[in-house]
User: Fold this.
Amino acid sequence: MSQTSLSRSIMICALVVLGVSLIGGIISVLPVIGKITLGPNTSWINTFVIGQSIWRLPIEFYIAIVALILLAIRSSTAWNMILSTLLLAINLGMIRSNPSNILLWIMIAVSIVALCVSSAFSEGGVKVFFREFSDTIKQLRQRPTAVWKMVAAMLAVAFILNFMHNKIVKQSSEEARDARLVEWYKDARNKANAIDGIEIKIFTDYQCPACSQNVPKYLETALNTGNDAVRIILRDYPLDTACNDSPMFSMHPAACSAAYAVRLVEKEKTDEIQDFRSWLYTNQSKLNDYVILQRLKKIGINNPKDMFDEEINKAVSASIQEARTYGISSIPSVVLNNVLLPAGLNPSKLELLLKSELSGNASSE
Assistant:
């Protein structure tokens, strides 16, 4: 196979990978089509390369493979234009969430230069591209062994890049983010109202899916410190207008009743409280007043309707008011020593901050 045919064959394989990744990206975001962002670090263009969810490959693989193809091509054709545009699109999407990544800025410059050069020398445009595409497919059908060799080479490159990404890039960036988080927390801690010891307040909603996943992990993380100086306090912030007028509508219509029921169980059946919380989290979609009242009867509460008592209502209202003083608007939220931690905090980051606090307390003693 000639060098030109080999280059074209590599392009075909690359475009297949990128094409499937694009389809995977579109499918993966169908539930949230129309939104500008999918999360704090995910821009709309990132969905173009969300093939990571299919291929489990780092973004560096897509950037590297397109760049290598461009470098391997000596003749400037429509292939160059398409791949240059692809490289530019990927890098522009990534730079939004990684503006300090020098490599991405360099690759943007490279892709712009490649696009300009290929545009200036391209002849025939799209017609040339489709003709070359058809010729390459015919050649690949005649040389299947060459295809397997190219696939094997691409997988080897992917493996090496993935290893480097996990062991070097990802680890170093994670360590840097952890250091910034600890530094931010210490600065916020110094500005917050001082308290004795270490106090963790966790604001939850028993119909919140994220709460069911993270709150038990937050509790486990705090308990695993094994330090009596760590105080854990659970608070309510139901996204239900029946007791909380902050939301525009009731996102979780049984959340207030669930919060009332927890307070009643804490008061009358303390030994059942952990199991009752777990039951609420497990049965979120089924919750309503009737289901909750029946569960209270089952665990031995003599008068389940006591959960609507004024005293309990006031306690939940006080918890909601406390959440507002911290500026809480979403759940779950964690307040560590009067510092509201970032929303959606990973339990491992809470562990990191607790270790920082405990080591600080130990050194001060």
